[in-house]
Amino acid sequence: MGKWLGTNKPPAGSEEWIGFLDRGVKLEGTLELTGTFRVDGEVKGTVRCKETLIVGENGHVDGEIEGSVVTISGKVQGTVKGSQRVEILPSGSIEGEVQTSCLVIEAGGVLDGRCQMKSQAKGVPAAVKPMPLAAQPHGSSS
Length: 142
Prior knowledge:
Shape: globular
Strand content: over 45%
Mean pLDDT: 82
């Protein structure tokens, strides 16, 4: 634990864990983070993370989440923005809006709301990209 609280803190921008909010901890306001962080407590407000943000099974966020990769195992009410990816695991649920270029919802995960997906290149909606046609096997009749 001294790694997070003492002088051995990892440099900003590294993908190492920088800390967590444990079960039973409540925070109201804005939390700005530079590395990988886990929320198992309750947050009411905004969480901004430059790396990976994990909302654990006991975590609850009511507000806005921004991160590079956002993984949800708990409950989120509000807006989730993932610049690279948003993942909803089997025990996770989001009630609100998701904005990302890549959304992964595992069996049992819940998204109750709206999803806006854009490609990573210049904000062009992903639905506009042409999809290649699958090659028809020889001898098949159409």
